[in-house]
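Morning!

This is the sequence you dropped in the shared folder:
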Amino acid sequence: MPYDYDLVVIGVGPAGEKGAAQAAYYGKRVACVERAEQPGGAAVHTGTLPSKTLRETALFLSGFRQRELYGLSVELKRDMAVPKLLSRKNAVRELEVARMVWNLERHGVPLLQGAARFVDPHCIEVTGGGGAPRRITSEVFLVATGSRPHHPPDIPFDDEDVDDSDTILQIDRLPASMLIVGGGVIGCEYASMFAAMHVSVTLVEGRPRLLQFLDEEIAERLRGAMQALGVTFHLGRTTRSVRRVEGRGIVTTLDSGLEIDAERVLASSGCSGWTDGLGLQAIGVEVDPRGTVKVDADFRTAAPNVYAAGDVIGFPALASTSMEQARVAVCHAFGFAYKRQMSHLYPFGIYTIPEVGSVGFSEEAARAAGLKAVAGRAFYRDNARGKIVGDKDGIIKLVVERGTKRVLGCHCIGARATELVHIGQAVMLLEGTIDAFIEMVFNYPTLSEMFKYAAYDALGALARA
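The structure's back. Tokens below.
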């Protein structure tokens, strides 16, 4: 018997949408199943876009960018801040949901609402969505159900003032003080955002430094910038307990015995794959205790016709990589020659204040890998556009291999860092050297021009090496 569809995608976030569109573009019969009322997943509703929109709105409302540049004193009206923050977040969400729906419609992909459960490797049952349960068959399935915040058992998430990275977006007021448990990307982003809005922020992180996957110099510069915003750090510390105490709010006790009072607590403890109820184990798909689906290099599970992509397969759990994983999975499933592997280079964008962009080897990782490397730097304070925008502390750092002058890594911190990093990424993808930056003509004044001077600095470091 023929299948109802060639591909059924379960979950319509960044991975699901792009995987469905890729297959439909090549003429495959595709359908999507989404348990929520609207597509978008965490990227649109609770994570990537909402948090980044809140960041931009916070910068505007707080007057952060103008404080030193124009010598202005900006007063934040705390009672108006949250409604303004949430209204902008909701507007962006609605626009992105509409775009995703339009994209599926123009590719002829129906969007079915309901929760999916595998009956066998080629059949799912969809329940909910206002209709009777129905069974749908498909030659291939792509699981792109995303993730949700992990809840450690020792943190009282049932308290209205204890949040995870989803519920923090539903705040109804700006607290006077906030304690953040976890110094990963999400924890650092929210710490800097709330500090910019004059919230007294304390961040507790069990590791000795922030964001250990970053170049150490860049991570330390970020810590200093966040400290200048008013963030208090307790690095190398864990929490012993989090509890409400009458008259003190939420009291967090660290492993050192120190007690910290805060009006609100945000626990940023990582994410778990959202695989509950899918019935994956019953069809032979391996799922670990955190709900993460195991896949091979082609994003295929142990069930040969079932693929998975995005946050549900774990690290790096970025919207950007999720989209590419789904495209590669679909192309492999149907034998399309178009896109058969992920690039070995993918950038990290961290939307802290200041923001950070990073791709490739850090200086420490290059040396640990046995590569002989030097670093070249250019500073925003020496750049005409940097002076115009008032960023005195930003930096572009290139990690360069001795002998070949090949660019091994690019790390940026400061205004537009998440955009600038792609210039370094492009040269690296083409296996270019720092000569490419020296030969390029950059618009003046631009922040991009710093790549030329970082390359010159690297040449000097190579000559001294």
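Headline: The longest helix spans residues 78-106.

More detail when I'm at my desk.
O.
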